[in-house]
Amino acid sequence: MTKEGRYAPGWPGIPARWTSSAKTGVGTALNNRSRVWFTISHGILNEVYYPSIDQACIRDMGLLVTAEEDYFSQEKRDAHHELEWLAPGVPGFRLVNTCSDGRYSITKEVLTDPGRDTVLQKITFVALKGQVSGYRLYVLLAPHLGNHGAGNSAWTGDFDGARMLFAQRNGYSLAMASSAPLVRSSAGFVGSSDGWQDLNAHKHLMWEYTRAENGNVALIGEIGVGAVHGEFLLSLGFGTDPDMAAANALASLRDGFDKAKRDYFAGWQDWTQSQTSLEKTELGPKDLAHVSLAVLRTHESKADPGGLIASLSIPWGFSKGDDDLGGYHLVWSRDMVETAGGLLAAGAHEEVRRVLVYLESTQHADGHWPQNMWLDGSPYWDGIQMDETALPILLVSLAHREGVLAEADMAQLWPMVRCAAGYLARNGPVSPQDRWEEDPGYSPFTVGAEIAALLAAAELADLFHEAQVGVYLREIADVWHDCIDRWMYASGTDWASKYGVKGYYVRIAASATAGEVWRFENVVHVKNVAPADDSRVGYHLVSPDAFALVRFGLRDASDPRMCDTATVVDALLKVETPFGPTWHRYNDDGYGEHQDGAPFDGTGIGRGWPLLTGERAHFELAAGRIESARHLLASMEAFANAGGLIPEQVWDSPDIPDRELYFGRPSGSGMPLVWAHAEHLKLRRSLRDGLLFDLPPHTIQRYLRDKTTSPRMVWRFNHKVRSIPTHKVLRVETLAAAIVHWSADAWKTVHQDQTQDTGLGLYFVDLPTDRLAKKTNVNFTFFWTDAHCWEGRNFTVRMGESNSADEAATSSNEAHEG
Length: 818
Fold this sequence. Notes:
Blueprint (H helix, E strand, L loop, with lengths): L24 E4 L8 E5 L2 E6 L8 E10 L3 E4 H4 E9 L2 E10 L4 E9 L5 E10 L7 E9 L8 E8 L2 E8 L2 E7 L3 E8 L5 H8 L8 E5 L1 E7 L7 E9 L2 H14 L1 H17 L15 H10 L34 H13 L3 H14 L24 H15 L5 H21 L13 E2 L1 H20 L3 H16 L1 H5 E3 L2 H5 L4 E3 L1 E3 L4 H4 L6 E2 L13 E3 L6 H4 L8 H14 E4 L2 E4 L26 H13 L3 H13 L35 H16 L7 H9 L6 E4 L7 E2 L4 E6 L3 E6 L7 E4 L1 E2 L5 E5 L9 E8 L4 E2 L4 E5 L4 H8 L7
Parallel strand pairs: 26-28, 27-35
Antiparallel strand pairs: 1-2, 2-3, 4-5, 4-10, 6-7, 7-8, 8-9, 9-17, 10-16, 11-12, 11-15, 12-13, 13-17, 14-16, 18-21, 19-20, 21-23, 22-23, 24-25, 28-32, 29-30, 29-33, 31-32, 33-34, 33-35
Helix pairs in contact: 5-19, 6-7, 6-8, 6-19, 7-8, 8-9, 8-10, 9-10, 10-11, 17-18, 17-19, 18-19
């Protein structure tokens, strides 16, 4: 391998950027021998991931065309792109790129070699004007090894007699080989000495630099296209060192495309045909079930089986650099569980078992999972979201109902469920951050998931002879269920009056001070809110989150409160597009492009989410409006792009062609959103079965049929209620054993009660306040038995109707004490 030669000038190159998140194809071989994943956008390869699905290693790889008379064309910018799947359910793709001036077309077939770490492209270049020999064709490759555009080194050289392109960074290497001769080649720094700059200026390679060290680099090679009559194979190999990468690339090249294609097809077709729940149905004008299933399966890790990332994309990647290492190629336990639900709906049982094993291995000792994490379980962000701890419990319950888990499996998973339920009980119901990575407060989705999860865990506690734990989990679930309307039902607001409803369910946020709240446009304040001890006030957001109360079995879809909520949600958040309706996440959502289409940069305007179209379809199905649900399924599929991929968001404003933003089409956010494809599969299954696939039966029985209520309300250090109804028992909970000293007559009479151990790291005592008169003040304090010390301050709860806004304001960020 030659390493001598001319070093490129212009170090270190311009700041590195990723590329478009608007993928039209994603794929990988369905085995563990090939540890590469590829993505496609604008007719070319975008990010390729190696050796793990969370490690992007190139920015992009495409072709450039020049000819005499100063002709210069780049296929990703100057051509019309068409894409089709090579076979149903097989994520290999045929691309046809026809240049806009009609001079050439490029056809590619793209897949990975199942036998090694290589991406293959079988390419045919056709001259639509003139002869192939009259054109010069170049491959341009931008290495971003190990999730970094900076610090890469690139060079041209030989391996085993073949001319190749190489790059290396910190233990990651790539090598590109061609079946056609590489006539010329060069390595340079992006923006100054790279091949694109050379061709744009000179229309042929003049510089031919052999090395570019430690920067943002690009490689270019001229393909001897005339010698092979326009047909050739490009092989992009990866390895831990350059020789291994070169050996992989060259071996795949010599084995040929047809063998790789046969093996690639066989692996995917055998697996897809085993998913018996995917039979063809007449549920919509398209049949995207196999697309969705392949998307889900493509996003699973091979080194860490069961680890499913959110998307092989970086939202607004063209504006993101090395300071955004994660993109969406991270594990969010919420998205992963929702994805596993989609796999389960399609009958992919073994994959769901792997997800559950992965959840076991990445659960933190206290019971929670990180907000998001790398595949090895190490956190990326440091947030904690309660639904991400609740949903794994519900997945265990759903998998058990679907017959995926035997009793031995349940016994193995019970410690994980028990630990997660304990975390919910100790830290809920208010999450430090809610479902959408925003402010703390009450969210119908999060609270609903917690209540359903506590009941599911209680059933397992009974199964494994921990009746005391089961009783407590049901009791706390009942307390929270009774509080749903007090916490999250708004009435008497301007919007209620405007839209002719009595009230509606909302998300309560509690993180803004009174001064901060008024900076939000259209934020509606909870009626009769009074500042709490920390000078915070509650405000509410309208969100389709509210429909989770039906999805989790806590409200009936025909409940007038839910119907009124749908009226307000539609009035404020629904957008009709040429492809069907979509909804915003909530009023004043800031996650999306700016008004002028500029990419999200920490601020912006939230756009429509196809995922929410699927969730609304489930609500419509629950309400018995089957045709409406079918229509929404068709809309969800219509939002997909030419490759069948469903985006995170669609553009919901007038077209801005210069930014590739068109009304109702994918925006610059993540695509595909794996959760959206999972929702698509669950919706198809729900429509086929005539009922909501993932509806928990235990909540339906307990709250909608048995009408269970709680005789208690709970005070704890992270949830200090100020007053409770006169007929309620006050339960006081702590994280350590204590003697509660309390009085109902201004300390004239003092009672002492020892807390009971729940077995979940929580202790409680029930004070018989249900016998006290209205307006009675109950005073109490604690003697900590283990530390043998007093709390040193008193607390008061007043008998009478409680103020839910005070609870929202005081409970959000206070840590447990004691």
